[in-house]
């Protein structure tokens, strides 16, 4: 009787290893297809681009602060007129 119990646990162990390998392969494929999630999110967050130096900013407040400090002689773009820095 102990012989059959041993055999069953070995079979289940083998299934477990196969399942882990299959899952690891699936996860690796999903990661490749997905790409770098953090990089993609960071790029999506940069929605404002400075017309003078082409720097990218995440929000209008930061954009206005950048524009006022880096390009004080240039006229303020119309999209920054009502923004408070």
From TrEMBL:
**Cellular localisation:** Cytoplasm; Nucleus
A single GO CC term, please? nucleus
Annotated region Disordered: the residues are 1-40, 59-85
Which keywords are on file for this protein?
Answer: Cytoplasm, Metal-binding, Nucleus, Repressor, Translation regulation, Zinc, Zinc-finger
What's a single GO MF annotation on this record? Answer: zinc ion binding
Q: Domain Small EDRK-rich factor-like N-terminal: where?
A: 10-46
List, alphabetically, the InterPro entries matched: MBS1/2-like, SERF-like_N, ZNF706/At2g23090_sf, Znf_C2H2_type
This chain belongs to the protein called: Zinc finger protein 706
In which organism is this protein found?
Oryzias javanicus
Organism placement in taxonomy: Eukaryota, Metazoa, Chordata, Craniata, Vertebrata
